[in-house]
Amino acid sequence: MKLINSNFFFKIILIPFIFLVSNCASNKVVETSKPVIEKKTVIEKKSCLERSRVTSSSNRFIKFKHDINEVDEYVQVAADWCERFSKIAVQSRLKCGTCCDASYRCK
Predict the structure, then answer these.
(1) What is the C-alpha separation between 93 and 45, in angstroms, rounded?
(2) pLDDT tens digits, residue range 27-58?
(3) Closest CA relative to residue 72, chosen from 96, 106, 50, 105
(4) How far, rounded to the nearest angstrom, does the alpha carbon of residue 3 sit from its chain's CA centroid?
(5) Can you give the pTM of this predicted structure?
(6) Is 3 part of a structural domain of the chain?
(7) Residue 68: what pLDDT?
(8) Residue 98 belongs to domain spanning
(9) How many angstroms separate the CA atoms of 74 and 80, rounded?
(10) With 0-12 CB in 10 A as exposed, 13-18 as middle and 19+ as buried, what is 93?
(11) In a domain, 99, yes or no
(12) Domain tally, the chain
């Protein structure tokens, strides 16, 4: 009784093993260095060239156009404006690029 047929062993196991070993030996690994890209850690804030101002207002809202560095100051201006009418300022929009367009509703 034969345990392993030599023809079967040759065709199924030995030939694929030889191809695998020879293929791995002939492949060359080529390493390429990637260019180093420096990331900016600080976002440059450019100042607004327009004059900071109130663009429109009423007893229900106030709208501003101001420099990006003046956001906190104009929050207080909106609070003071709405306080005149015994209301509280609620920010409804703040869109900033180099200049900010802000609007607050008085509730």
Answers:
(1) 20
(2) 566 666 666 665 555 445 567 888 889 999 99
(3) 96
(4) 65
(5) 0.55
(6) no
(7) 86
(8) 53-106
(9) 10
(10) exposed
(11) yes
(12) 1
